[in-house]
Amino acid sequence: MLANPHRRFNPLVDEWVLVSTERTRRPWFGQQDPSSRQPDVAYDPTCYLCPTNTRANGLINPGYDRTYVFTNDYAALRPEVSADRIEQGLLRAEGEPGTCRVLCFSPRHDVTLALMSKPDVRAVVDVWADQTAELGATYQWVQVFENRGETMGASNPHPHGQIWAGTALPHQAARENASQRAYFETHGSRLLLDYAAQEHRGTRVVVEHEDWLVVVPFWAVWPFETLVIPKHPVERLPDLTGAARDSLAGVLIELLGRYDNLFRLPFPYSMGWHQAPFDGQRNEHWQLHGHLYPPLQRAAVRKFIAGYEMFAETQRDLSAEEAAERLRTVSPVHYLSSAVPSTD
User: Fold this and answer.
1) 85 has which bridge partners?
2) At residue 132, what are phi and psi to the nearest 5 degrees?
3) Pairing of strands 141-148, 160-166
4) Which among 160, 274, 285, 291 is annotated as catalytic?
5) N or C: which end of the chain has fewer CB within 10 A?
6) Contact 173/210 with Cβ under 8 angstroms?
7) How many CB atoms lie within 10 A of CB 264?
8) How far apart are CA 162 and CA 72, in angstroms?
9) Are 76 and 124 in contact (CB under 8 A)?
10) Which residues pair with 292 in a beta bridge?
């Protein structure tokens, strides 16, 4: 049955995905992503994220030597905004106080998470956790994410991510919260821990570690989408033990290295961490997890959300099982690893 067109259910957000693998055989004459390459200089004097350089607002970056966090110069959320509401019939709006921060992963302009050393990626994980704890004291939702590559809207190739925090619970977070809570109330266990146990050593697993499981989810939408799940109960990034943070650094290096090696190019993706909201409630139903959404389905050919997917239902051409097999069989040793000096 699964070789023919079929729908798969995503229990995390309570929606269905249409899978039609025959479409991968069609010729492609549409838009292709321009080829891109990794920057080849460790320091770029024109880059507003490199150490000691001047940003657009005139502030000067310090000479940081590992990670650096600052408030976004063009923040989409600001703390001084009023939370006032307006209602005019069907028209409703409300102010959204919050903040947006930029996290430079490394002072080097010519690396990515996949090319950084394990201790340096561990430092990034620690900052994710520290920023989550700090911002969670004020805001309900803390969104840690990275847009990698021009395709995903990254405005600068310097290795960096972002952390946005807001007062409201966003739509995707609310859906995941409701689904996980309903599952926990019915089964007495966490939805994603049960899912990780079911996928253990299965055909959709890409990387498996004592502490972590990386899987192309059964209900994946993006061609090489992956879900990163701790194999033990964890609600938020600050709750991760030191050992789990170390192993997460290794898992990310391997996974992102496999991504780049798949088509031997800097693989674009959006990565985001979903963690329990800071809503003052017990969140024993919530399991920390990371989503990675890469748009490339063939070298330089990007998946677009259009047509049937915009107006009816999400659809994918590449089966989750085939995507996972391709990621598993590609080498985890980055094809550019010998070109970037170690910072250890």
Assistant:
1) 94
2) -60, -45
3) antiparallel
4) 160
5) N
6) no
7) 11
8) 9
9) no
10) 226, 271
Q: Which amino acid is at 296?
A: L
How far apart are alpha carbons 112 and 257 in whole angstroms? 10
At 215 the three-state DSSP class reads: strand
User: Is 334 within 8 Å of 261 (Cβ atoms)?
Assistant: yes
Q: Which CATH class is domain 32-339?
A: alpha beta
Q: How far apart are CA 54 and CA 262, in angstroms?
A: 36
The distance in angstroms from the start CA to the end CA of the chain is 50
**DSSP secondary structure letter of residue 294:** -
Q: From start to end of the chain, where are the E strands? A: 6-10, 15-19, 68-71, 85-88, 91-94, 98-104, 141-148, 160-166, 205-208, 212-215, 226-230, 269-274, 289-293, 296-298, 301-302, 315-316
- State the DSSP string of 141-173: EEEEEEEESGGGT-S--SSEEEEEEESS--HHH
171 assigned to active site = no
Contacts of 271 (CB under 8 A, 6+ apart): 145, 146, 148, 161, 290, 291, 292, 293
Per residue of the chain (344 residues), what is the pLDDT tens digit?
Answer: 466 788 999 999 999 988 887 655 555 455 666 557 788 899 999 999 999 999 988 999 999 999 999 999 999 999 999 989 999 999 889 899 999 999 999 999 999 999 999 999 999 999 999 999 999 999 999 999 999 988 887 889 999 999 999 999 999 999 999 999 999 999 999 999 999 999 999 999 999 999 999 999 999 999 999 999 999 999 999 999 999 999 999 999 999 999 999 999 999 999 999 999 999 999 999 999 999 999 988 776 777 777 877 788 888 888 999 999 999 999 999 998 876 655 55
Residue 278 contacts residue 140 (beta carbons within 8 Å): yes
